[in-house]
Amino acid sequence: MRARGPFVRRLGIGGRTGVVLLAAGLGVLSPFAIASPASAQQGSDAAGTWATPPQVDESALPPDERKPDQTYTKKTECVKRSLGQNIEINTIPWGQSYLQLDKAQQIVRSAKGTVGGGITVAVVDTGVTPHPWFQDRVESGGDYVAKPDNGAAPGLQDCDGHGTEVAGIIAGNPQDPKVGFIGVAPDATIRSYRQLSSNYAVDQNASNNTGQPGGGTGNPPGDQNGGQNGSTPPSGQNGGQLPGTGGGGGEVGGGTAPQQDDKGDTRQLQKEGTAGTLKTLAEIIHGIAERGEASVINMSVDHCRAADGTGSIQAGEQQVQAAVKFAADRNVVVVAAAGNVSDDCPQNDQADPNKPRSIVTPPWFADDVLSVGAIDETGGVASFSVHGPWVGVAAPGTDIVSLDPAEGSTGLANLTIEGTQQSPIQGTSFASPYVAGVAALVRQMYPQLTARQVIQRIEATAQHPAAPGGRDDFVGYGVIDPVAALTANLPNDVGELAKPKPVVQTAVLPPADSMSSTPMIVALAGTGGGIVALLITLFVMHTIRRNRPTGPPS
Q1: CB atoms within 10 A of CB 345
Q2: pLDDT score for 81
Q3: Which of 245, 255, 343, 368 is deepest in the core (most CB within 10 A)?
């Protein structure tokens, strides 16, 4: 299933860094190898199942036309108001603490002077708003939805707000010690490609729209559910957060149903009433790799479908499969969200993991993609995170705090918007950028590593679950461990990687003893007196024995 090196395939069960290395070493010496992640979960022969995708058809790779594949029109106005709610600015988000990002960043800064500097991460999403806390590190990659209507460069308008929050997790940098939040690689460059939007739908009247699967049929722009397109709700309605499309509260394009707190983001590629197709996703990946525009790609966009049990692959899936292989072969680390459970994407909770109920693309192509599941604050897998033999690792995906995507905002957000409904920021969409950020740090720390070696290193140093082969279908090889990924000496390391790397730690010394020394003096004096008394006793006894008569009594 996953084309990993011999070391990774032989990993044993591990925990924190020391245990990981011990388990890894034992695994290398073991004569038994794990053939694939699927077989780690299931002992039966995988032949005839459909968890493993068909062989790559490289002829399916589409050229990057650098434009939308159809004409999309805006049906919902862009997010305009703050999505922050009761955020304590000095509080460190739990995900940062859980992953010990401060220590990881200190290690990289000590070695390289910056944290992610010189590394470009491509964010393929809903666009990125140039928030002030990105400074000047956001670049235009392209727009595959529509020409921005606010005068921004292609890819730098985020109507949905999703892409900005994703990018903030990767590279947000408040440059203010009073702010607890910081991105994983705060000196990295973000290159934004707008490829998906729930705020846009196919224009049915446009002559270039084919109506074929992949473009979606969408709903016509204009009046929806009794409201004018782009109308602003009264103050207090809809949380006072986003101008919406209707006051009726009904479903708009399938994207405005209220989200439950235990569900992740439900955006999907090729979803009716939205912009974004597998074809344009494949084009973007191809173009990034071909032009060398980034060394890491984060895709918090997915397409989920029911598995038909035949092992067949759709045309758009073939294109993405060819594109991610093209990128990996050209030394680009491709990271993707594992997907979120929804009505259209049922959980893979069947008995045989090799016969999934749902197929998620791009994670399905695990030979070339590092897919990321989500955990919650307890460390357990989040209920919405889609399981599967393709899951590579996991990262925090609930109660997320990131940069506020509203134009002109200078703060943080803990809410996200889909359609006109707001919900907490959670989902594998927001676990993925944690991993993409760590990949950027590893690429900066070890520029000699290939893309596949970077992925292997992140997997090898993860906190492995207690499962055969150190992986399962829920969190893959486990929750990422950024400090271990940057410092661990692995059995197959060579050259500079094989040299011991000290971990920078703050010295913690015991406090000076300011107590009185009298008790110690008394104790020592008492001990000395006892020794003297003992010596006198021994001397007296010895003298008495020497002076005792030795002859027989008279």
Answers
A1: 22
A2: 79
A3: 245
Tally the residues of the chain: 554
What does the DSSP assignment read for 363-426?
TT-TTT-EEEEEE-TTSSBPTTBPP-TTEEEEEE-SS--EE--STT--SEESEEEETTEEEES-
Structure tokens at 177: 């010690």
Which residue stretches of the chain have pLDDT < 70?
1-49, 207, 210-264, 499-519, 548-554
Catalytic residue among 197, 429, 473, 481: 429
Q: For this structure, is 162 an active site residue?
A: yes
Residues 304, 459: Cα–Cα separation, whole Å: 24
- The answer to whether 166 touches 300, Cβ cutoff 8 Å, is yes
Residue 131 designated active-site: no
Quick one: pLDDT at residue 206? 79
Q: Which of 69, 140, 143, 162 is catalytic?
A: 162
Q: Is 429 in the active site?
A: yes
Closest C-alpha to 334, from 385, 289, 290: 289
Give pTM, 2 decimals. 0.76
Give CA–CA dist 150/79, Å, rounded: 13
**What's the count of helices (H) and strands (E) in the chain, helices before strands?**
12, 15
Q: What does the block give as tokens for 305?
A: 């479908």
How many angstroms separate the first and last alpha carbons of the chain?
A: 106
Picking from 305, 236, 267, the residue whose alpha carbon sits closest to that of residue 419 is 267
Three-state DSSP at 338 gives coil
Q: 303: which strand partners?
A: 361
335 forms beta bridges with 298, 370
- What token pair was written down for 126? 């809903």
Residue 497's pLDDT is: 78
Catalytic-labelled residue, pool 36, 69, 82, 125: 125
CA-based torsion, 483, 486, 492, 493: positive or negative:
negative
Q: How many CB atoms lie within 10 A of CB 305?
A: 15
Residue 405, C-beta contacts closer than 8 angstroms, at least 6 positions apart: 79, 83, 129, 131, 158, 160, 161, 162, 163, 164, 165, 413
Distance of CA 380 to the CA centre of its chain: 15
